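ligand=NAP
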Amino acid sequence: MSDVPILAGNGLNMPALGFGTFQLEAQTIREILPRALELGYRHIDTAQCYNNEDAIGKVLEQSGLDRDSLFVTTKVWFDRYEPEDLIRSVHESLERLRLAQVDLLLLHWPVFGGRGMNPTLEALLHARAQGLTRHIGISNFNIDQTEQAVNYCGQDMLATNQVEYHVYLGQERLRRVLGRHNLVLTAYMPLARARTINDPVLWEIGSQYGKTSAQVALRWLIEQDRVAAIPATSNVHHARANIDLFKFSLSDEDRRRIAALDKTGRICKPDSLSPEWDD
Ligand SMILES: NC(=O)c1ccc[n+]([C@@H]2O[C@H](COP(=O)([O-])OP(=O)(O)OC[C@H]3O[C@@H](n4cnc5c(N)ncnc54)[C@H](OP(=O)(O)O)[C@@H]3O)[C@@H](O)[C@H]2O)c1
């Protein structure tokens, strides 16, 4: 069994390291996810728009693992944000995932119609009240939107904001706001889509501990208070490396060198979905 720590925050109990599944097609999920579960991953991150909930559901069902030992997140795509449709879409996700409830349900992007975010947040609260999910949260919300969502939902209702975060992107202001409201920051693209792999600074740091640059990039994230990371891989060797993070730690000097890396490297900024980013 793995030694992944569990993160708390607004009632949340979420493994600090998850398995991302963006762009992993059904066949890849069938191959890699059983191996990832063997390696100790228990937190699985998917989304309606990844088109792999069905494949994930089958693997989880066949794994024979206790439902309570798993932590499954899915995200509602913005074209299902009308309240009744949001609930319908969650039932569809649950059917594909073969689950009675997910552990965490997120709004994937802050894209709302003329009535603003409140009707969609209300539907998210209903999904939780109906037991379709244990926890609710947001994704890609900027600071203003996060504050608005917390104000509407209530101080202890939202568990996380899942946003891009890695050694090349600063998120200090957002982290402070999330901390104030007791939300976890779930770091997506934690390897900066593999850009960290050949970073000479990360290599040098890792070589002191017999670790790779990818492991240093992930360790840097999960050493931070209330930060989770969800790296994705289709490669079992990478999956093994990405969870082998808990028997070394970075020094103050390592952290100082990582802090000095350029922090303006946002990768995920689709024109049609992006809010006004804070950085
Ligand atoms: N909420 C959102 O809007 C949002 C947006 C994007 C992503 N996400 C979530 O975040 C997860 C992670 O993001 P991501 O998949 O875009 O990027 P990522 O995890 O930063 O990078 C994935 C890339 O890194 C490579 N890789 C993984 N581990 C490696 C290792 N140890 N050594 C070398 N290469 C390695 C993978 O290739 P191999 O397959 O060859 O290992 C893949 O090309 C997604 O899967 C998804 O669940 C959420």
